[in-house]
Structures are given as structure tokens and as C-alpha cells.
């Protein structure tokens, strides 16, 4: 999954390298159902928005929430969480931008 950072003002886009590997548990959640949907992650801070261009296929919003939760845990373990003063959150949204869930990083 490729994430792109949209910097304020002017909404300039720059690449933001974050790699996610789906765990076996979540991969099973995707493969159990023939009906999958594409969910996208958006990291949102006070002065920056980082967009997920590719998204992830998941059998449900719950599986997508598990993916986002795993992303946050991996970033925390690597010491890569951004400044808490920026009030970062992860928004899970559809391809057309409808936000389905929002999770706080801290």
C-alpha cells in the first residue's frame, strides 16, 4: 500500500513510505468471503493529511479496522508514530472518500 502525504496549504502531495503486511489472521478474514471491498486509510493530523492510494481488500469493515489497528501497533513498535501534538488519527474510508471509522493514534 502506498501512502501519500498532502501538506497544507496548497495540498501538495509527497510520497510517504509505509509498508503493511497483512497478518495471517487478517488474510484469512479476507479470503473466507467471496465478497470483498476495498478500504483506504487516511492518516490525518492538524497540518497534514497522508492518503492511501491503493487501499486493502477486506471482507468487512471489521477486518479493515484490524488492519488499521495493526498499522498503528507496527508504527508504535518501530517508534514511527508522529508528534502527538498533531492529534493524528487513521480514517478508514471507501474509494469515493466516505469515512467509515476513525481511530486515534494516541
Anisotropy-based shape: globular
* pLDDT averaged residue by residue: 75
Strand content: 25-35%
Which structural class is indicated by helix and strand composition? alpha+beta
Order of helices and strands: EEHEEEHEE
Low-pLDDT stretches are 1-33
Structural summary, described in words:
24% of the residues lie in helices and 35% in strands. The protein is of the alpha+beta class and 106 residues long. Strands 1, 2, 3, 4, 5, 6 and 7 form a 7-stranded antiparallel beta sheet that branches. The longest helix is centred in the middle third of the chain and has 17 residues, at 61-77. It is globular and about 40 Å long. The two termini are 23 Å apart. 18% of the residues are buried. The model is unreliable at 1-33 (pLDDT under 50).
Write the layout of secondary structure elements.
Blueprint: E1 3-7, E2 12-16, H1 24-31, E3 37-44, E4 48-52, E5 56-58, H2 61-77, E6 89-93, E7 99-104
Antiparallel strand pairs: 1-2, 1-4, 3-4, 3-5, 3-6, 6-7
Give a quick set of tags describing it.
single chain, alpha+beta, 106 residues, disordered N terminus, seven-stranded antiparallel beta sheet
Amino acid at each position: 500500500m502506498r501512502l501519500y502525504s498532502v501538506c497544507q496549504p496548497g495540498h501538495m502531495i509527497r510520497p510517504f513510505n509505509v509498508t503493511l503486511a497483512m497478518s495471517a489472521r487478517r488474510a484469512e478474514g479476507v479470503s473466507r468471503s467471496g465478497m470483498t471491498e476495498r478500504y483506504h486509510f487516511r492518516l490525518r493530523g492538524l497540518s497534514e493529511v497522508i492518503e492511501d492510494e491503493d487501499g486493502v481488500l477486506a471482507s468487512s469493515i471489521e477486518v479493515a479496522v484490524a488492519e488499521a489497528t495493526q498499522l498503528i501497533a507496527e508504527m508504535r513498535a518501530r517508534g514511527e508514530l508522529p508528534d502527538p501534538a498533531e492529534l493524528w488519527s487513521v480514517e478508514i474510508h471507501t474509494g469515493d472518500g466516505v469515512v467509515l471509522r476513525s481511530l486515534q493514534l494516541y
